[in-house]
Amino acid sequence: MTNRWNKIQAAMILAINLFLFIVVLTVVGCGVGSEDTTPNKAQLRQNKLVEELYGPLVGTYGCTITETDHTNEKARLIISITTVAVTNPDGTPGSKKSPLAIFQRIAPVVADYALFPSGYSRETATLNLSSNDKSDIESIQGQMVDRKYTGTIFSVLDGEIGKLTCQWETKDTGLKDTLRDRLFKAYRSVEGSYRGTIFHFNDPKKNIPVRIDLTALESSNKQPYLAGFYDRLDHNDADLGLDVTYRPNESPPQITFEGTGLMNYRINFSGTLEDGQIQATVTTKKDGYYGKFEAQLVSIPDPPPGDLFAEYLKIQGTYRGKMTVQSEGGAKSKIEVTLNLRASRPNGTPRLLAELRRSDLERAAKSVVATYSPFADVQALKVRGNFGPEIFELKGSVVRDRLRMQVQSSAKELGELILDKDSL
Hints:
Number of helices: 4
Shape: globular
Strand order of the largest sheet: 20-19-18-17-25-24-23-22-21
Distance between the termini: 93 Å
Radius of gyration: 31 Å
Strand content: over 45%
Order of helices and strands: HHEEEEEEEEHEEEEEEEEHEEEEEEEEE
Helix content: 10-25%
């Protein structure tokens, strides 16, 4: 009897211990699970780390670039912390904080770059900035000590650009709009047709009536820029595309135009654009200093017909062909030409953008505004710009999926170029 009772007691003790063990496992498991299943706890920790690490650096820094040729350039560095919406693993909304740097070249070069801080360490003071856009500035490698940043700027194309020195100025970053939006807004504010006169410095009989059109566009890598068109009103064949540099941060805002036309004609405007008025100094390759240019904004782009964008969509695509070019030594060679047509509608205004690439040139193509007349009897297409040696203008017609274009160099007509559209 006693042995039987002992066995029962032992079994009961074992059962109780097993029950307690299961309870402990359950409690511990619930504790672990409650911590691991908090969907945004890791993100909250990361956000706090970003705030602690980069928060003291936030602000605007005034900078100087000392380039490799010892010339100086003004710049600005803005360090901020951005917050973007994310979705937590359990589907609930959350947020993510990330450091962001905006590097602005102010004078004489004007350009903005979005850079991403990486590898910042308080111990070593190392702060490297890198870009996703490798066309110009690739990275800045430097150190941040007492909110003074010193480093070296590198470019994929040119290697080391120069040394950078920045000093903290204010906590305000001014980044209410995105970088791209701010640039595009500045360029859109000066769009339109400007009509005026180039006044010859000595002979009024050589004064030239001129119209200049400015259009805000974006490049293939989504960077805004201004495209220009020069129309000499007293001469039918003297119009040309312009490379435009606009510096809205200067006081007053600075602008330059440069274009190359027929017979290697080159003209340069350098001056100011303020309150719809252009005042500039004019030089040409032939004459050197030519005189002064004064122009007034006379019109802003009118809204085109509502169905024009649909017509642009019909012909957009990639067209390919071959043409013969002649080198300075007289040797002839065949090159492949690719013309990309793309319909765009910034701020509701339809545009047809053209991007021409050549197999013999490595430089990136730049978009220009194409002129297309889909409602005329002959659907005429004109693409004008500085497309490298031997190509200044393409003009012709659109027939189904084929472009028949006459090629014009800066000095003469080169013949016909046939471009066929890639099949989808």
